[in-house]
Specification:
heterodimer; A: alpha+beta; B: alpha+beta; paralog of FGE (formylglycine-generating enzyme)
Chain lengths: 222, 261
């Protein structure tokens, strides 16, 4: 096999292998060295180095029917995940995992940290359906369940590194990642397998909440 | 506090423009048979007739897009939408330079950039099923995959190192549908690249699968001779939406408003 044939295979093998490790620490952003991040070519302010996923404009609809943006909780740490309401096993487990995580947070963090779960399935996950899930699972006001137009849900999944596919029977095959965003929307930590320990995520959320409380990064404090 | 601007993947929602028949070909209807059907129900995916660019998007066309939508210039695009290699082969953010041919396929574009380019044209990226359906046609047949000679040709491209200089678009003969360069020039983005899940790691065997994959099924290749498909599956499953590489480009697709006939 020649080099060009091997490269994609190796890339695939590496990424699959890497995903299986325990990346509680997120890969650091690539070094800013190449031509595209070098001195701005037109002298204008550039967001080039900005790693905030809030760059994505989304029209989410939450469980109360309210339209919100992806950045609704800018200024606070947010746990973000994707799911669909009729999912039989992985999504209930995702919710249970986050509940456990949230209830273990220290008091300061519990008042600042939000949960945003976005559905792959806008057709079935209407505000009423989402509200029903929130009630059944006893989710408090720090939780937002939301749906997005299909195309935007795919963009969010792409940003979060979540893979999913609609199956012919209406279910979805998907990876279950849980991502912690810092107050500016930059991915701070994540788990890509719900079997992974969640303590590192909790510790990072508490640290971010503490920084926010000291007024370092929360616009709400201004 | 930074005033972080929200760059809408901007052209979303524009009314589709009627496409000139000459730039897009009608492909299908047909059925895509994935190399690795994730479940029995997905062994054959029906594909409605659709329109597909006859050629990959060129440097010249992408430059025009970047000039009209400056938030997609390489010095302005938010880092989450395109990695450091984005358009880095161009001389500058607004100029291809002497070493880059206008008629070469544009490469070093991320999925977000490709997707937004197509939306700006009132089009979209093709789905994996659509792309594979189009690419399974030989010069004379809608499905050439049973033809050893055709398969040999494709394999020859996949096993050749990248040429130092990409060919211009349109250098390979049109296939059955009138589409060129699906094989033989560059790899291409598809809309649902992030639907490909390869799960063959033994460490994930058994019960743990349920934790990660909701409804994921066993993976068994249907056609072990179809090596090019295997390569594409491997490649797509390795991609991230901000990735750019020197041999990954794209073309656009659109629904066929005339419907299946």
């Amino acid at each position: 096999m020649t080099r060009s044939a091997l490269v994609p295979l190796l890339m695939a093998a590496c990424l699959l292998a890497c995903r299986d490790r325990k990346p509680e620490a997120v890969p650091s952003p690539p070094p800013a060295a190449s031509a595209s991040s070098a001195p701005r070519e037109d002298g204008s302010p550039t967001p080039r180095g900005d790693r905030s996923i809030y760059a994505l404009s989304m029209a989410l609809t939450d469980q109360n029917g309210k339209k919100i943006g992806l950045d609704a909780y800018r200024g606070d740490p947010v746990f973000v995940g994707m799911f669909y309401g009729t999912c039989p096993s992985a999504c209930p487990l995702l919710i249970s995992t986050i509940k456990r995580l949230m209830s273990g947070l220290d008091g300061g963090a519990r008042t600042r940290v939000h949960v945003l779960l976005v559905s792959f399935d806008p057709a079935r996950d209407t505000p009423d359906a989402l509200k029903g899930i929130a009630a059944r699972r006893g989710l408090d006001a720090s939780w937002t369940l939301a749906s997005a137009p299909e195309d935007e849900a795919r963009e969010l999944a792409a940003l979060l590194g979540i893979r999913y596919r609609r199956l012919p029977d209406g279910n979805f095959s998907h990876t279950s990642s849980l991502v912690l965003l810092d107050p500016s929307g930059v991915i701070d930590a994540r788990i890509d397998d719900l079997g992974e320990p969640v303590e590192p995520l909790a510790a990072r959320a508490e640290a971010l909440a503490k920084e926010g409380a000291q007024g370092l990064s929360s616009p709400r404090d201004r | 506090m930074l005033a972080v601007t929200s760059v809408a993947l901007s052209a979303r929602g524009q009314a589709p423009a009627p496409e000139a028949a000459s730039t897009m070909a009608r492909v299908g209807p047909g059925a895509y048979r994935p190399l690795y059907p994730p479940s029995a129900a997905e062994a054959e995916v029906p594909v409605k007739a659709f329109l597909l660019d006859r050629l990959p998007v060129t440097n010249a066309a992408f430059l025009a897009f970047a000039l009209a939508h400056p938030e997609w210039r390489r010095d302005r695009v938010p880092g989450v939408f395109a990695d450091e290699g984005y358009l880095s082969h161009w001389a500058s953010a607004a100029d291809l330079g002497a070493d880059v041919d206008q008629e070469q396929p544009v490469v070093r574009v991320s999925w977000f950039a490709a997707k937004t380019y197509c939306a700006a044209r009132g089009a979209r990226l093709p789905t994996e099923a659509e792309w594979e359906l189009a690419a399974s046609a030989s010069r004379t047949r809608p499905d050439g995959r049973g033809d050893p000679a055709w398969r040999e040709q494709i394999l020859a491209w996949y096993s050749r190192p990248n040429p130092p200089r990409l060919p211009r678009v349109g250098t390979t003969p049109p296939n059955y549908w009138g589409v060129r360069d699906l094989q033989g020039v560059v790899w291409e983005w598809v809309l649902d690249f992030n639907s490909t899940m390869v799960n063959t790691d033994a460490r994930r065997a058994g019960d743990r699968d349920r934790l990660t994959f909701c409804g994921g099924g066993a993976i068994n290749a249907t056609d072990k001779e179809d090596y090019p498909s295997f390569m594409r599956v491997a490649f797509r499953s390795s991609l991230r939406a901000d990735y750019t590489t020197n041999n990954l480009g794209f073309r656009c697709a659109a629904d066929d408003v005339r419907g299946d006939r």
